[in-house]
Amino acid sequence: MAIVTSTEMFKKAYEGGYAIGAFNVNNMEIIQGITEGAKMENAPVILQVSAGARKYAKHVYLMKMIEAAVQDTDLPIVVHLDHGPDFETCKSCIDGGFSSVMIDGSHLPFEENIAQTKRVVEYAHDHGVVVEAELGRLAGVEDDVKVSAEDSSYTQPDEVEEFVSRTGCDSLAIAIGTSHGAYKFKGEPKLRFDILEEVGRRLPGFPIVLHGASSVIPEYVDMINEFGGKMPGAQGVPEDMLRKAATMAVCKINIDSDLRLAFTGLVRKHFAEHPDHFDPRQYLTDARTGIRDMVRHKIVDVLGCNGKA
Ligand code: G3H
Ligand code: 13P
Ligand code: ZN
Questions:
Q1: What three-state secondary structure class fits 262?
Q2: 257 alpha carbon to ligand 2 midpoint, in Å?
Q3: Catalytic residue among 72, 74, 82, 95
Q4: Phi, psi of 150 (to 5 degrees)
Q5: Are 77 and 110 in contact (CB under 8 A)?
Q6: Residues 153, 130: Cα–Cα separation, whole Å
Q7: Is 82 a catalytic residue?
Q8: Residue 104 CB less than 6 A away from ligand 1
């Protein structure tokens, strides 16, 4: 098996009423934990790399480790640029072997978002790479950019057909009330399923992407707080809402914060229980195993893509 695009995966996911997990990767243990979990559940998987991840780990290291994961697991794996900020970053990832890129023009006016997305689509399609675009704007923190709730905006369904047909993008991220990070809702979690439904009606068969989809699993938040951390009021998207979205037009569900929480909680727990340890292989084994188990849970209980590789 080689690195693949998401085209076939999304087609099957749409028809089958499930979604593919898109997990953010920043180091070897995260890549191994995710792909070991996917292997155990025989699930297709998207490994996504942000601009910040490329800066932290370097493109070539992440690429080579993902190639190793493909060789090791023999699974269909997509390598995707998450929140590509501009044409140049997308081009660099396309030239550097990614099979999918996101161009995030969600902060731009409609026409500028279209122009930028179209430029990326032309270059990507010439190189056999698929493109995710975004309409509407999520709240929360990505890299160092914080989008306040007031500056966030729901996707307007009456814009999606024109946007997709004029840009030629292969999938579309929409804003229905999720947000990035570990603090998604104050009070009752609420997602605009009516917007998702209307977008699905206007774009039949077209894959929709849900960002900001970590559930902020209480077990890991509690673990962090029990072992010396401080995460008051963290709250994510309830898993039954994600499950529902996966049965609708959503084919890709983005998860990063849950990986960070599991990793951090388990490292904190390890040190609390073994204050004398100083070998990174000991505490990183706990983190990697925890990520593997959390990813298995997402695949089976939330995404429904187990057995679909
Ligand atoms: O949506 C953003 C992802 O969680 C990536 O975060 O830019 O800090 O790597 P990052
Ligand atoms: P979370 O912060 O909810 O994990 O969202 C991740 C994401 O959308 C990556 O693009
Ligand atoms: Zn995102």
A1: helix
A2: 6
A3: 82
A4: -70, -30
A5: no
A6: 25
A7: yes
A8: no
Q: How many residues does the chain have?
A: 309
CA distance 6 to 255: 17
Q: How far apart are the first and last CA of the chain?
A: 11
Q: How many CA atoms lie within 13 A of 113 on its CB side?
A: 22
Residue 260 beta carbon below 6 angstroms from any ligand 2 atom: no
Cβ neighbors of 136 (< 8 A, separation 6 or more) are: 106, 153, 154, 155, 156, 173, 174, 175, 176
Q: Which amino acid is at 120?
A: V
d(CA 78, CA 282): 30
- Residue 304 backbone zone (phi > 0: left; psi -120 to 50: alpha; other: beta): left
CB of 29 sitting under 6 A from ligand 1: no
Q: Which numbered ligand comes closest to the C-alpha of 255?
A: 2
Tell if the pTM clears 0.90, that is, is over it.
yes
* Token couple for 130: 């698929």
Q: Find out whether the beta carbon of 106 lies less than 6 Å from any atom of ligand 2.
A: no
Q: What's the rounded Cα separation, in Å, for the pair 257 and 212? A: 8
**Alpha carbon of 7 to those of 65, 158, 171, 206: distances in Å?**
23, 25, 9, 10
- What distance lies between CA 207 and its chain's CA centroid? 14
pLDDT, residue 143, reads: 67
Per-residue pLDDT of the chain (309 residues; tens, 9 = 90+): 889 999 999 999 999 999 999 999 999 999 999 999 999 999 999 999 999 999 999 999 999 999 999 999 999 999 999 999 999 999 999 999 999 999 999 999 999 999 999 999 999 999 999 999 999 999 777 766 777 777 779 999 999 999 999 999 999 999 999 999 999 998 899 999 999 999 999 999 999 999 999 999 999 999 999 999 999 999 999 999 999 999 999 999 999 999 999 999 999 999 999 999 999 999 999 999 999 999 999 999 999 999 999
